[in-house]
Write a structure and sequence with these properties.
Helices cover about 10% and strands about 35% of the residues. It contains five helices and 60 strands. It has a five-stranded antiparallel sheet with strand order 32-31-34-38-36, with no helix packed on it. The protein has a five-stranded mixed sheet with strand order 33-40-39-35-37, with no helix packed on it. Strands 4-6-10-9 form a four-stranded mixed sheet, with no helix packed on it. Strand 31 and strand 32 form a beta hairpin. The longest helix is centred in the last third of the chain and has 34 residues. It is flat, with a radius of gyration of 67 Å. The N terminus is likely disordered. One of its GO terms (cellular component) is plasma membrane.
């Protein structure tokens, strides 16, 4: 432990004190303890004391101070390590410590705490009361001062320990409120940690500690009563029993298993003097003949008591033994066949019999010769699954046994070729529960109850294109668990995609037809069905998916239309090649310029095939300075190469005519580009034509609608008539009235047609819906001359109405009837004339 020395001083002290009664004479005693007044105090536990080594002998250096929890007086004392010099003396009552020897600092060393008795095993009776001290742990630290003081702690591995330790004295106790129980836990392990008071060691403040494991064995004590084993107890007296017959034996043992006491048995009550018990073995016997028993049931109280070594009765336990008086059951159930008792029955039958059918080949009878309840028993069939069921299930004396099929699917030859069942007959109400067993062995015969089954629902195969005819594609497998010829499988294929393939009927190997030619570019995927069929036509299907793997078997081919190009400076030209392989990278093309004259004039895009002039070539002057070719036409050797393995390539000569255009603008650029792609230009022209047609149709539709509206006759509406003005001399009257189809036309009294004849067709009678015309008026004076009248002109005369007018009107009316078209035109003209006259008048 650390040695907290200072120059010229020595720190030392291991001080203990003791009570005037022994610490270990009474388990309920609590140890006294020192007061801890700190390192700078001159009284207390003397845990840390600095003392100069030149202190003269006889000097009083400290006063020990402590107390006892029970209030008893304490005495002080001091112990030293055996063989060492005693430097101090303590007064037993006052605790005064006096130096009796000279000190020498150089004679001290540092020590760790050490347990004096480790490992320790402590035996503690389980009935030790809580709070009792059971052991004292002692550790010694030969350091001085605080480095030599020792305190104790518990470090238990159990979740909640039942023990506690005094930190100063090391006394180990059972915690208050805790008890030990041998039947629950026989051993406890605790770890005691001893720590010193700490000090300076090698320039650092350190605390030294040690630990020791303490094993506490719990000793069993007599605290558990006897225990009866196998309860409840039932015994029987039969008609053949006699005095002295053993009816039942009870068994009891001491509950304290580690140190059991002997057990004796006795009958407390209920025996009525007709039963006795062996006190040592617990065997109950009959004392009289069964005929002398007056009851059918006896409930006997049996007592089991522990006996101490001194012969004193200790704890006891009581149980009940029920004894029933019954008739003798001396015949077990027995199974019979056609020839007598039999315990093995065999049957051969086909698999999967109908459910509910009974097994006709089995003739089984069961019998119990006893009477009453002794002859009543259960029948039960024990075997794999729930395939069969036995009837009846309860039998009295005798019955014919019938086995019914309950699960036909489970009786499968492919799963098991024979089935074994146990037929049990067990008595119901007898204490003996006599029983009998018989084996039922069923040999199954196979039927064709399974269709072939493929190893997979579908098969996926890949085969390279151009594979020769007869190449293997995939092998399919199907199995039929049926036996014999029923298990033979034949294969066939069908489906729209099966034309190029054939299958070997026995092995299931699918190959291509001898004449088949597989080409990915023509068709890359096929699917069809394969059929597995047994000899009776039961079959199953699986689907086969075949993918034709593309091979690089085509070279790129240039579009011949793109081998002659006109290039405008600043615009690219594009060449195009096509690879007829179906998949990448076989059909991916890379373009390159193999040769051109001069070499450093063109660039080509490896992916798109666009050929451009070098960026520095911006005019024809530069081109003519580079080359002596004055016609500005170059032949460029271009290669198109695919990315397949192996790779194929094609080389063509592209003639490029270079020109310089003076046109500017986006349309010019578009037209130049359209030369490389005529379809683009054709699409533009088609779009323009479609737009023009649409505009034309729209304009025509608008004009048509407008014309229709302008030519439409005014809608029918009722117009208020103007009152007839009085006849005046200056009024102009029609010199005659004309009637056509019964209608009179008069300027002074114009009728507007109604909805009944919206076009005012004069061929329709009554179209004006007005009253008949009044008779003709007498002649009146002619109207005044118009403003443009010239003197000397002939004056108007008003003719009278004569028959000639009517005759003329009738003739016109007939003409209207004869020609409807003319009539309609005349009516229309008249209507417009009247409308015009009205407008002029108003």
């Amino acid at each position: 432990m650390s040695c907290p020395y200072k120059s010229g001083y020595v720190t030392l002290l291991i001080a203990v004190f003791y009570c005037d009664i022994s610490l270990f004479t009474a388990q309920t005693d609590y140890a006294p303890y020192f007061y801890d007044n700190g390192p700078n105090s001159n009284n207390g536990n003397m845990a840390l004391l600095n003392l100069s080594e030149d202190t003269p002998k006889g000097t009083q250096i400290y006063v020990l101070n402590g107390t006892d929890p029970e209030g008893q007086p304490v005495k002080y004392g001091m112990t030293f390590e055996p063989g060492s010099k005693e430097y101090f003396h303590v007064h037993p009552k006052s605790g005064t410590v006096t130096l009796i020897e000279e000190l020498n600092r150089e004679s001290y060393v540092c020590y760790e705490p050490q347990f004096q008795t480790t490992p320790s095993i402590v035996d503690v009776p389980e009935n030790t009361t809580s709070g009792s001290s059971i052991y004292k742990v002692q550790a010694v630290d030969r350091d001085t001062g605080s480095g030599g003081s020792v305190t104790y702690f518990l470090q238990s591995s159990e979740p909640s320990t039942k023990f506690a330790i005094d930190h100063h004295s090391g006394v180990l106790r059972i915690k208050p409120g805790e008890t030990l129980d041998y039947e629950k836990s026989r051993t406890h392990f605790i770890t005691v940690v001893a720590k010193d008071g700490g000090g300076i060691y090698k320039g650092k403040q350190q605390v030294m500690s040690s630990s020791a494991t303490l094993t506490i064995n719990v000793i069993d004590t007599q605290d558990t009563p006897p225990v009866f084993v196998g309860t409840p107890y039932f015994g029987y007296v039969y008609e053949v029993s006699s005095p002295g017959s053993e009816i039942f034996t009870v068994f009891a043992k001491d509950g304290d298993m580690d140190n059991p006491n002997p057990i004796i048995h006795s009958i407390e009550s209920g025996a009525d003097g007709v039963f006795a018990i062996n006190k040592t073995s617990g065997c109950i016997t009959l004392k009289v003949y069964p005929a002398e028993l007056r009851r059918e049931i006896f409930n006997i109280k049996v007592k089991a008591s522990e006996v101490s070594p001194e012969g004193k009765l200790l704890d006891f336990a009581v149980t009940t033994v029920t004894i029933r008086v019954v008739d003798l059951n001396n015949h077990p159930p027995t199974f019979f066949g056609e020839n007598g008792p039999q315990n093995v029955f065999e049957l051969t039958m086909y698999e999967h019999p109908p459910e509910g059918e009974f097994l006709r080949g089995l003739k089984i009878t069961v019998n119990d010769s006893d009477q009453g309840s002794n002859a009543k028993f259960h029948l039960r069939l024990v075997g794999p699954g729930h395939m069969l069921r036995v009837v009846p299930q309860t039998v009295l004396n005798e019955a014919q046994v019938t086995i019914l099929v309950e699960d036909s699917a489970a009786m499968d030859f492919e799963k098991s070729q024979f089935l074994t069942f146990k037929l049990l007959a067990v008595e119901i109400d007898t204490p003996e529960r006599f029983s009998a067993t018989a084996d039922i062995i069923i040999h199954l015969l196979d039927t064709n109850d399974n269709a072939p089954k493929f190893s997979s629902d579908f098969y996926i195969a890949r085969i390279p294109e151009n594979s020769p005819g007869g190449s293997s594609v995939v092998s399919v497998t199907a199995s039929d668990p049926d036996s014999g010829l029923w298990g033979v499988v034949k294969y066939s294929i069908y489906g729209s995609g099966a034309d190029l393939f054939l299958i070997q009927p026995d092995s299931g190997i699918i190959c291509t037809q001898p004449w088949a030619s597989l080409d990915t570019e023509v068709k890359s995927k096929y699917n069809f069905y394969v059929k597995a069929e047994d000899t009776e036509g039961k079959y199953s299907l699986a689907e086969v998916f075949v993918t034709i793997m593309d091979l690089n078997d085509h070279s790129p081919a240039f579009n011949e239309n793109s081998l002659e190009k006109t290039m405008v400076i600043g615009a690219p030209v594009k060449i195009e090649a096509i690879d007829e392989d179906a998949e990448e990278p076989n059909n991916v093309i890379e373009y390159s310029i193999m040769k051109s004259d001069p070499d450093d004039i063109f660039n080509i895009d490896a992916d798109t095939g666009e050929i451009k002039l070098k960026p520095y070539i911006k005019s024809m002057d530069i081109i003519q300075n580079i080359s002596s070719n004055k016609d500005c036409t170059w032949s460029v050797v271009v290669q198109a190469k695919d990315r397949g393995s192996p790779s194929f390539s094609t080389t063509k000569v592209v003639k490029i005519d270079i020109t310089e255009t003076q046109l500017k603008g986006p349309l010019t650029s578009f037209l130049l580009k359209s030369r490389e792609n005529p379809m683009q230009f054709l699409g533009l022209v088609s779009g323009v034509i479609i737009i023009m047609v649409f505009v034309t149709v729209f304009i025509s539709t608008v004009i048509y609608v407008r014309n229709v509206k302008s030519n439409k006759i005014l809608p029918s509406r009722r117009i208020i008539r103007r009152k007839r003005k009085p006849w005046r001399q200056d009024d102009f009257h029609q010199p005659f009235r004309e009637e056509c189809c019964g209608v009179k036309f008069r300027n002074e009294d114009l009728e507007i047609p109604t909805a009944d004849n919206i076009n005012c067709n004069n061929n329709v009678k009554g179209c004006f819906h007005r009253t008949p015309p009044s008779p003709p008026d007498a002649p009146v004076m002619p109207p005044p001359l118009p403003s443009h009248f010239r003197h000397g002109d002939r004056e108007w005369t008003v003719p009278t109405v004569s028959a000639s007018v009517a005759s003329k009107t009738k003739k016109r009316s007939d003409r209207c009837k004869d020609n409807p078209v003319n009539t309609a035109l005349v009516s229309e003209l008249k209507l417009r004339l009247e409308q015009k006259n009205m407008a002029n008048r108003y």
